[in-house]
Amino acid sequence: MYKLLKKTGKVRRGEFKTPHGTIQTPVFMNVGTLAAIKGAVSSMDLKEIGCQVELSNTYHLHLRPGDKVVRQLGGIHKFMNWDRPILTDSGGFQVFSLASMRKIKEEGVYFNSHIDGKRIFMGPEESMQIQSNLGSTIAMAFDECIPNPSPREYVENSVERTTRWLIRCKNEMDRLNTLENTVNKNQMLFGINQGGVYDDIRIEHAKTIAKLDLDGYAIGGLAVGETHEEMYRIIDSVVPYLPEDKPIYLMGVGLPSNILEAVERGVDFFDCVLPARNGRHGHVFTKDGKINLMNAKFELDTAPIDQGCQCPACKHYTRAYIRHLFKAKEMLAMRLCVLHNLYFYNKLMEEIRDAIDGDYFSEFKKEKLSQWGGKA
Description:
This protein is an alpha/beta fold. The protein has two domains: 271 residues, Alpha-Beta Barrel (TIM Barrel); 91 residues, no CATH class. It has an eight-stranded parallel beta barrel, surrounded by four helices. The longest helix has 27 residues. The radius of gyration is 20 Å and the shape is globular. The two termini are 33 Å apart. The relative contact order is 0.13.
C-alpha cells in the first residue's frame, strides 16, 4: 500500500508498505541481475550502504539456476539472504534486447537463450509463474519494450497487445497467490506503460491500465535511444494519468541528473545498472561530478574518492590505492568502486527525501546540477 506523505507541485514523498518492509520514496533500486550485485557486493554490504530495494532479473534467473531451483531453496529472499523488498522485472526488456533471436505472437514470445541457444517461450502466464517461484516482493507485468524509433502503427498494435498481456498477468497473479504452496502469497504486481515517444498513445495507455487497480505503475520503454528532452516530455505527459495513490516507477533510469528531473515530475521508483557498471570500470560519482580513477593524475592522490563520503571505500582507502588495484587487476578495485557508487545513489535518494520533507527540493536540485556541472 502506497501512502502519499507530501506533494509539492508534482514532487512526491511517500512510503510503500510491502510484505518485506516499508520503502521510503523516492527510492533507487540496486540492480542484482542474477540475485547478486556484480562486483562482489554481498547482501550484508547492501544494508551497510543503505539499499532499500534489490532488483533481480526474471529472464536470467529462469535460465540459471532456474526459478524452480530457487523455489525449492525457499524463494529468492532466502536464496540470496536478503530480508528487504525485492522487485523482479518480467523478462520483457531482455526479450527486447534479443531482437535478432525472437518472434512475438499473441500468446507470448519465442526466443533463443543467449547462453546455449535453447528455444524458450515466455508469455504473461509464464512470466508470472517464474516470478511466483522466485517469490519476489514486487513482480513486473510482461510487456513488449518497443524499439525507438518505431512506426506509429506498430506502436499502437504493440501497446494494445501489452494491455491484453497485462490483464492476463493480473489474472494469473491472482490465481497463483491463492495456491497453498506459493512462496509469497502477497506478491504485488506493477503494470507498465508503453507507447514509444507518442504522447497520445502513452496517455491513452495510462488511462486504460490505471483502471486495473494494480499495486503500482511503471513507465517503460524509455532510456532506449531517445533524447533526455523526449524522456522528460513523456514523463510530463504520462504521470498525470496514473493513479496518485500508487507508486510510479521509471524503468532503467539512470544518471543522477535524470533522477532529479524525474523526481520533479512525480516519479517514485528508479533502477539502473549504470552505477555498478561504471564502478567496475573505475568511473565513480562524486559531489563534483563523475571522475575516472584510471587517469594518471590520480596516481599520487591520497584523497578518498569523494571527500566527506561515508561509504566503505572512502572511509578506508585513497584514490591512488584504488587506481593501483585497477592497474594490478585486483578484484577489490571493482568491489570498492561499486560500493561507492551505490552508496552515492542511495545517499542521493535520502537527501532528495530530506529536501522534499524540508520544502527545499527545488533549491537542492539546482545546487546539485550546478555542482555536477554536466559531469553527472
